[in-house]
Amino acid sequence: MDRRFVNHIPQKFIPMKLDILFKMVFGSSKVILGDFLSAVVGSKVEVEEIINNELAKENLAEKKSILDVLASLEGGSKANIEVQLSSHNMFSERSLYYWSKLYGRQIPEGFDYSHLRKVICINIVDFNLQTNKDITHYHTEFNIRREDGKLFSDHLSLHFLELPKLTESKEPVNRLELWLKFLNAESEEELKMISDKDSLLSDAYLERIKAFADEAKMHEIDARQKELMDSITSINYAKQEGRKEGRKEGKQEGKQEGRIEVVKEMYAGGMSIETIAKVLKQSEAEIRKYVNM
Fold first, then answer.
1. Of 186, 213, 240, which one is at a domain's C-terminal end?
2. Could you tell me if 278 and 206 lie in one domain?
3. Which residue segment(s) compose the domain that 77 sits in?
């Protein structure tokens, strides 16, 4: 490791699966990103460009879609990698929404469907998916197929990497598992030990340390950690308030009124519609209705 950066490692461990840190590391190098993508899809992937990856907010009441890492691949395909630490009941729909936004905006105005290319969406999740309760393996792919199994189109490819399903074995069985253990490390010592197994992982580890040495990037990391902590606080607050209102009224109507007030307070405090829906495990349409009451 470059000794210039060693002293910048924070005393409190910051995991690689923190989305903003993941973006800083994997969005810094086409080689690192390409190797990870190749491990996920099972074939060689060449990254042509890492793209500015923010989708515009359509209006003040709509969600803002920020994609962790978005890349243009050889042949025109796109790949989007998102890290999601907390679960909610609309996650499958959310994944399809992000895929559709990327797929649909490929066609410039006045052009035809021949400009459409494959979009690969990779979701790295720190929870077990409801749709995968019957599956023990950490990697699943979804696409569009006919009833007899024949592929309808390869343009949709959704990958889910469930970190809690990683095995406890010390030695990764393949390259994808090596990368995922790197992301799932729980201490600086464990992370360094894993990165020492491979030159590209060592490069990724160095990019991590470089981010810590950059004052502006550390400010972003600190701000993101604070945001996540505020979200946890809001979750606990919402649960407590919901229980209070339910006990006070003793009726379903009372619970509903309490929920509406909680939603309004959360929204007034700066939380997005999407985040509130995730926290309260309700649809975004319901949350939007409460906000407008």
1. 213
2. no
3. 3-213
pLDDT, block means (10 residues), the chain with 293 residues: 65 91 95 98 96 52 59 95 82 89 87 92 91 89 94 96 85 91 94 95 95 93 84 68 58 63 66 75 83 70
How far apart are the C-alpha atoms of 233 and 266, rounded to whole Å? 11
Task: Out of 191, 213, 235, pick the residue that ends a domain.
Answer: 213
State whether 136 and 262 are in the same domain: no
Interstrand relation of 139-145 and 151-162 (parallel, antiparallel or unpaired): antiparallel
DSSP 39-60: HHHTS---EEEEEP-BPPP-ST
State the pTM of this model.
Answer: 0.76
Q: List the one residue out of 140, 93, 149, 154 whose CA is nearest residue 277.
A: 93
Q: Same domain, yes or no, for 282 and 200?
A: no
User: 150 by DSSP, 3-state: which?
Assistant: coil
| Total count of domains within the chain | 2
Q: The dihedral of CA 22, 27, 28, 30: what is its sign?
A: positive
Tokens coding 204? 């990724």
* Placement of tokens 């903003």 in the chain: 20
